[in-house]
């Protein structure tokens, strides 16, 4: 893994409707909501700041509680620049993007909430840029943080297939349907899928010093059990959302309530 550290962010003019900054030579989009204590939100694979956090009510929930919600469109997603080289999508590179966004906004340290791929990015952020992470919520991420996932090749094939009818497996079809619904660049997502699921070494997981909340749905077979990951992190706690799978946990009211309670204890809004 490359060493930590990051260059200064540079303001850039973007072609979309969101403000942008430059990270590692890549134009990345972000948005801010509210004016309270900042919370950085990092979305999952194939999603965007708007889809993962605005449409699910997270930004509204956080601003109502007195926080400023900050969303980032990860490289290859949303309004951010699209890249087609898998070597540009390792999770630690996207963690550096998140650190540069905080620096760009003049934020020395903030709570971070990540979901699925966003939780993996948040974990690398907490490891590589510990001072920038006041505390973090890892949603939809359990022990798969360390094991990675073994269905990447079929998902890549599904993303690159000529039509949905050419995608044979259920998991690949789910990802293809979601990519089409969000009008994503499927070739960029295929490149991202190839490397963004790279695992974190258990020794690195155990060195995460910030308080961590791990939240996983009880029916989430992709993430694994929240307790199994939380047990490895010195200041971690676990919450299981009953009756929810990987997709439905994202906007669940109980996930939001657990996150707000955690933030109130470790990074109060006022």
Descriptive tags:
single chain, 270 residues, alpha/beta, Rossmann fold, 11 helices, disordered N terminus
Can you put this structure into words, describing what you see?
- The chain is of the alpha/beta class.
- The protein has a single domain, classed as Rossmann fold (3-Layer(aba) Sandwich), CATH 3.40.50.
- 36% of the residues lie in helices and 19% in strands.
- The protein contains eleven helices and nine strands.
- It has a nine-stranded mixed sheet with strand order 1-2-3-5-4-6-7-8-9, with helices on both faces.
- Helix 10 (226-230) links the parallel strand 8 (212-217) and strand 9.
- Helix 3 (91-104) crosses helix 4 (117-128), helix 6 crosses helix 7 and helix 6 packs antiparallel against helix 8 (186-195).
- It is globular, with a radius of gyration of 17 Å.
- The termini are far apart.
- The model is unreliable at 1-15 (pLDDT under 50).
CATH superfamily: Alpha/Beta hydrolase fold, catalytic domain
Named CATH topology: Rossmann fold
**Structural class, please?**
alpha/beta
* The number of domains: 1
How many angstroms separate the termini? 37 Å
Give the helices and strands, then pairings.
Elements: E1 10-12, E2 20-23, E3 26-33, E4 37-42, H1 49-54, H2 58-64, E5 67-72, H3 91-104, E6 110-115, H4 117-128, E7 133-139, H5 144-147, H6 152-160, H7 170-181, H8 186-195, H9 202-206, E8 212-217, H10 226-230, E9 236-241, H11 253-266
Parallel strand pairs: 4-5, 4-6, 6-7, 7-8, 8-9
Antiparallel strand pairs: 1-2, 2-3, 3-5
